[in-house]
Amino acid sequence: MRLILPLHPWRVVSIQTGSSIEQKRIKDEARAIELRKREEAKVEQDIRAAEVKADKIVANAKEEAIKMMAYAAEECEKGIADSHTQAERAKAEREEMKRREIAELKDRAEQMKITGELPFYEKEKKGMGTKVKHALACHHGA
User: Which of 26, 64, 74, 89 has its CA 20 to 30 A from that of 41?
Assistant: First the structure.
């Protein structure tokens, strides 16, 4: 005996009644397998799309990191150059201040020599012979 079963509104399939349950089970399994394959394909496509998106994000992050590293290096170089310049300026100012202080002290010493506030002694060259001679002269005369 043959039955005509509508599986879809546009398709009519004829199957034998003796194995109709078996055929229905096979068709249901085939549909389930096909549906699973479609779902797996969709999942794989979504995974590939996510991987591409992740790769783009990583590439952009790397570019940003490179830019930030370059900027940081540039700022460090500027900071180092500025600190060197400031250190050199400070050193030059200290040296100039020392020179001015020395010049002021020399001027004050000269003024004190002129006014007599500071006794002026010329350095005498005294060797060992002169010291002995001076000691004998002072001792001898006493």
Answer: 26
